[in-house]
Inverse folding.
């Protein structure tokens, strides 16, 4: 057998091996992300995907309660990265659902605002701050020419507004704002406050078109079904860019102050990649792009400096200090109060829906 023939056989064998290996080399790792609709810039995930040979598969929820129910049913399995509110992080940790952060391999977390890194129990070890904003009221200036300024404008509405009001579909936020309307703290543990909030919500119920948030993918504000709605600042900042009739305020009693986090799940098949993505979101230029995409306030001071002056001057996205001072974070409730809240929500929203 000639050396040339042997060499040819070797080349053919090598070529065959490469052809067989090509699909495996091209195959991408899938990361499953559970989040709000339009809350992660697909260009950012695509860039991360090119760097790490990853593709993302998106799953969505419409409220914190819906996400909690979905994860409870799956025992925290089925997802790699999840968007959560800070008050549930410790509960998820105790259930064994979360993968701990690895600070040594996540250098860009140094850019995250220290207030939010320590904002809730467990977050420093298990969660990365994502975006923040307020919960207030959005209204159509052409449909509500006098505007709104108080939660009572929707809880005890005029006849003209009745039937054109949309309220949030999350139990905690709906009840929190009813508490603020009756001059109580949203963190109240006094059953008497909850009785007053329940009475107010039941009185309002006939005038509520639906318990659902207006979001970037729901046109209830733009098509006129909603004259006024409980809404998140980030959604309204984005919608207002294409519809100047939409305005957003934090009522005079104050609103909600929300901070979302991202977590890597303990049951993830690719926990290191999930943690690498969490770190990637805090590269200042990446985080600034995410903030622009979501219409939210960044939790990264270096990224904030990269935003256009027009964005930093937008009071829907960046409220003044007085507005922030009137807005409350949801820190969760003792078990007895949580049970009371769930009973109220069931009476108001779930029955006779």
């Amino acid at each position: 057998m000639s050396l040339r023939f042997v060499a040819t056989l070797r080349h053919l064998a090598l070529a065959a091996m490469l052809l067989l290996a090509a699909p495996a080399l091209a195959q991408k790792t899938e990361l499953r992300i559970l989040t709000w609709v339009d809350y992660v810039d697909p260009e950012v995930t695509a860039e991360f995907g090119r760097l790490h040979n990853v593709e993302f598969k998106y799953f969505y929820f419409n409220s914190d309660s819906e996400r909690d129910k979905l994860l409870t049913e799956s025992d925290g399995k089925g997802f790699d990265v999840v968007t959560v509110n800070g008050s549930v992080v410790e509960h998820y940790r105790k259930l064994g659902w979360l993968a701990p952060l690895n600070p040594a391999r996540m250098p860009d977390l140094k850019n995250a605002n220290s207030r939010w890194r320590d904002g809730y129990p467990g977050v420093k070890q298990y969660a990365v701050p994502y975006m923040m904003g307020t919960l207030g009221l959005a209204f159509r200036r052409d449909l509500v020419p006098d505007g709104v300024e108080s939660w009572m404008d929707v809880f005890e509405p005029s006849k003209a507004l009745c039937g054109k009001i949309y309220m949030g579909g999350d139990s905690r936020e709906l009840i929190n704002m009813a508490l603020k309307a009756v001059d109580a703290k949203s963190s109240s543990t006094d059953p008497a406050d909850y009785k007053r909030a329940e009475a107010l919500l039941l009185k309002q119920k006939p005038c509520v078109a639906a318990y659902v948030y207006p979001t970037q993918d729901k046109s209830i504000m733009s098509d006129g079904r909603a004259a006024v709605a409980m809404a998140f600042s980030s959604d309204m900042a984005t919608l207002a860019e294409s519809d100047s009739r939409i305005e957003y305020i934090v009522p005079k009693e104050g609103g909600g102050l929300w901070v979302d986090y991202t977590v890597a799940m303990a049951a993830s098949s690719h926990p290191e990649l999930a943690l690498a993505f969490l770190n990637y979101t805090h590269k200042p230029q990446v985080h600034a792009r995410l903030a622009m995409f979501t219409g939210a306030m960044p939790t990264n001071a270096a990224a904030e400096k990269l935003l256009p002056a027009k964005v930093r001057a937008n009071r829907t996205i960046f409220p003044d200090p007085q507005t922030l001072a009137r807005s409350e974070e949801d820190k969760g409730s003792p078990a007895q109060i949580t049970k009371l809240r769930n009973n109220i929500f069931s009476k108001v929203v779930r029955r006779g829906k």
About this structure: The first helix runs from residue 3 to 26.
